[in-house]
Amino acid sequence: MEPNTIIHADNIDKIYGSGRNALRVLRGVSLSIARGEIVSIMGPSGAGKSTLLNVMGCLDGFQSGGLSILGRELSGFSVEDLSTFRNRHIGFVFQLHNLLPDFTALENVTMPLLIRRENRAAARKSALSVIERFGMLDRIGHRPGELSGGECQRIAVARAIVGRPDIILADEPTGSLDSTNSQVLMSTLFELGRENGTTIVVVTHDAGIASMTGRTITIVDGAIIGAQ
Ligand code: ADP
Question: Alpha carbon of 184 to those of 133, 134, 221: distances in Å?
Answer without folding.
Answer: 11, 9, 30
